[in-house]
Amino acid sequence: MSSSWKLQPTHPVPSDIAVSKELTGKGLPPIKRIAEDLGVLEDEFHQWGPFKGKVSLSPFTRLSSSPSGSYVVVTGINPTPLGEGKSTTTIGLAQALGAQLGRKTVACIRQPSQGPTFGVKGGAAGGGYSQVLPMEEFNLHLTGDIHAVGAANNLLAAAVETRMYHERCQSDEGLWKRIVGSKGFNKVMIRRLEKLGIDKRNPEEFTPEEKRKFVRLDISPTTLTWQRVLDVCDRHLRAVQVGCGKNETVKSGLDDGKRVQHDRATGFDITVASEVMAVLGLTGDLKDMRERLGRMVVGYSRGGDTVTADDLGVGGAITVLMKDAIMPTLMQTVERTPVLVHAGPFANIATGNSSVVADKIALKLVGEEGFVVTEAGFGADIGAEKFFNIKCRASGLKPKVAVIVATIRALKMHGGGPTVKAGQPLQTEYTQENVDLVSKGCDNLKRHIENMKKFGIQAVVAVNKFKTDTDGEIAEVIKIAEAAGAYKAVMCDHWAKGGAGAEKLAEAVVEAAKVVNEDDFKFLYDLDKPIKEKILTICKEIYRAENVEYTEEAERQIKQYEESGFGSFPICMAKTQYSFSCDPTAKGAPEGFTVKVREVRACAGAGFLYPIAGDIMTIPGLPTRPGFYDVDIDDDGEVVGLF
């Protein structure tokens, strides 16, 4: 950032889009200059318009022998449905470290889904004077990564359907002729041959049985877990019937000459819930992504064998669709701090974190004295736990500090305050001083602080200030947090003041990073432990559950995954974000409850298992008055009404 330019916030703070338009129009530097100042070389940067561009993975390779910066994760307490400002705090802290303290800093955040953008929650650019600019570009198509994920996911879905259809319609020899034919075996076919243990490469040498093994996947429809996706909230696509067209018929299998409909029940997920997105978040490079995408499991054969993207012959094609998406997008904040935006995995059934490659690139670019601030979705019981046990395992990176974001509003809710509902006015308990309610709610915060210490890192508490918060309430949180073991707790006003409002938070993070020994960082469990033991460890150590119960279906799935070689995968729990328990109404710090796992699914490409506890929707619905009502184009072609 130019030393001659200083942010001058106005009060009251305008809407997010008004701030974005005002500052974008006041000489916001072209993104190419931000890239140059960060140390990205010209051939490593691919510009997309004046204010965003793709960064190749080359900086990490080029700077591999250079020291890395300090790694900081921003997480939070269990939130209200309104959100407590983790993204805003992530941006505010990065601005404070860069613009206020002069540290070379990069923020790494997820790309938001258009589902919440046009639904209830809104975007994820931050807010006020701590946001990514231009926010309308950030919150909408960006550089097309989510669309690439959707295209790759749906190509695989189409491959599943067409393979089942053609296997029902054709003989072994007919399938062999059309799949192998005169062209012989290509790379993706050789992967399947290797999986089958067939070392022949000359099609003329294959026996009828070997031909059958190669061409017939014999997918069991009841085991299929792969669904189509789109980046919209649409509850009516949760369950659909496909194959209903008049031409989608096959022979009945009886000697009656009749044809029957080749249809089945399936559904849609929101794009960010796709395993392709989870792969993007955890991959290390293009080669690694190709391997991960190819081994994604869509279901099982009737004989009990896994059926993968490579078995279907589509692993290479979906990698081609994702080859540009692997590059993070560079943008900038209100105070011109660099931001790498990359990946957007669902925070329930996936990791809820931005990508490994973005963090790795950023840590090398900032250098030894610099900082990388990344965000983990939802509360620390979900996002941070997955950040440590899954993302850091995949990356090999060791964080130094966890910033826990808390609000007076959420703490009052956890202390016994009335239910907070999106779209409804807050009740008086939340707008008037009530130190006792705040104090009781701090049980939730204290547990999150305790949990961070189990990973061997320092916890700094950021009390994200709202206009109705009182000095007495904020002082109570700071006192309780520091007594509970937080390295420091500070009030932040970055939404209204930008980086200056988070300067004390930045100072606390710098101090905490100095006292941390990276070797103190540790995982919660070993991967070689049985699946159930890993699940129980998370439930007891992080949630404070007493035990875990499984349905018969979950028991069957766990047995199948262990037989398939997935037993060593880390665990990605899918549960409510509103409580430590699986009951969203259980506020504060519940303990001694039972976690009930209804099913366990595998993301073999991403490399984790996700047990589902509770009613988790993989495609949200829209409210009566969605956010899209306010979004429009003005006479000058400018976006209006986006928050």
Give the SSE map:
Blueprint: H1 16-24, H2 31-38, E1 45-47, E2 53-55, H3 58-62, E3 70-76, H4 86-100, E4 105-109, H5 114-117, E5 126-127, E6 130-133, H6 135-139, H7 145-169, H8 172-179, H9 187-196, H10 208-215, E7 228-230, E8 240-242, E9 249-251, E10 259-261, E11 264-266, E12 268-270, H11 275-282, H12 286-294, E13 297-300, E14 306-308, H13 315-322, E15 329-333, E16 338-341, H14 356-366, E17 371-375, H15 380-395, E18 401-406, H16 408-414, H17 428-431, H18 435-453, E19 458-464, H19 471-483, E20 488-492, H20 494-497, H21 503-515, H22 531-543, E21 547-550, H23 552-563, E22 594-597, E23 599-603, E24 608-612, E25 632-633, E26 639-640
Parallel strand pairs: 3-17, 3-18, 4-16, 4-17, 7-12, 18-19, 19-20, 21-22
Antiparallel strand pairs: 1-2, 2-15, 5-6, 6-15, 8-11, 9-10, 13-14, 15-16, 23-24, 25-26
Helix pairs in contact: 4-21, 7-13, 8-10, 12-13, 16-18, 18-19
Write up what this structure looks like:
By secondary structure, the chain is an alpha/beta fold. The chain folds into three domains: 20-143 and 325-515, P-loop containing nucleotide triphosphate hydrolases (Rossmann fold, 3-Layer(aba) Sandwich); 146-318, Domain 2, N(10)-formyltetrahydrofolate synthetase; 531-612, Roll (Formyltetrahydrofolate synthetase, domain 3), CATH 3.10.410. The chain contains 23 helices and 26 strands. Strands 1, 2, 3, 4, 5, 6, 15, 16, 17, 18, 19 and 20 form a twelve-stranded mixed sheet that branches. A two-stranded parallel sheet has the order 7-12. Strand 1 (45-47) and strand 2 form a beta hairpin. The protein is globular and about 80 Å long.
